[in-house]
Amino acid sequence: MSGKPTAASRLTISRITDDHDTNLMGTVHGGVLMKLVDSLAGVVSARHCEGPSVTVAVDEMVFLVPVRVGDVLHLHAQVNWTGNTSMEVGVRVTADRWDRSVPAVHVASAYVVLVAVDHDGRPRPVPPVVPDSAEDRRRRAEAEIRRTHRLARSRAIVASRTVGV
């Protein structure tokens, strides 16, 4: 299977926040951002693997500063890493404040792991991602570190369940 360049699946979407998005603190609910991140990651992964994929993990979701009603969110996503059937999509969320009082602010970042599936829901192969730049090579290397940690954590948890049983 031939590889695909990072740029082939890179995508940005924008959305204006409103009062329906707020939490009890009066800022945009983290779950609203999470849904947008997951939806965009799904589209980006589907573009890369040319078919459906499902989210299997959110490796990390970091909220840096609150998002306010009226802010314009910009979500930027790309495939950072691919395995045999899985991919990591990185999503960076910035916000333009509605009153333009400050430059765009980095408000959140996430790493979503998805698996390509066939029409029966079984995992299927994905093409390798081919980094376009030094920045993309850095992202791929960091994704490999996250994967190594995710797998090691999973093995350690399974092993701990058999100790002392």
Pick out its properties:
alpha+beta; Thiol Ester Dehydrase, Chain A; five-stranded antiparallel sheet; two-stranded parallel sheet; 7 strands; globular
Please describe the topology of this protein.
Blueprint: E1 4-5, E2 11-16, H1 30-49, E3 53-63, E4 72-82, E5 86-96, E6 105-116, E7 129-130, H2 134-162
Parallel strand pairs: 1-7
Antiparallel strand pairs: 2-4, 3-6, 4-5, 5-6
How many strand units?
7
**Count of the domains:** 1
How large is the radius of gyration?
18 Å
Taking the sheet with the most strands, its summary is: 5 strands, antiparallel
Count of runs of 4 or more consecutive helical residues:
2
Helix amount, in percent?
25-40%
Percent strand: 25-35%
| SSE pattern | EEHEEEEEH
Write down the CATH topology.
Thiol Ester Dehydrase, Chain A
Unreliable spans = none
CATH superfamily: Hotdog Thioesterase
Q: Give the class from helix and strand content and strand pairing.
A: alpha+beta
| Mean of residue pLDDT values | 94
CATH architecture designation: Roll
Spatial separation of the terminal alpha carbons = 45 Å
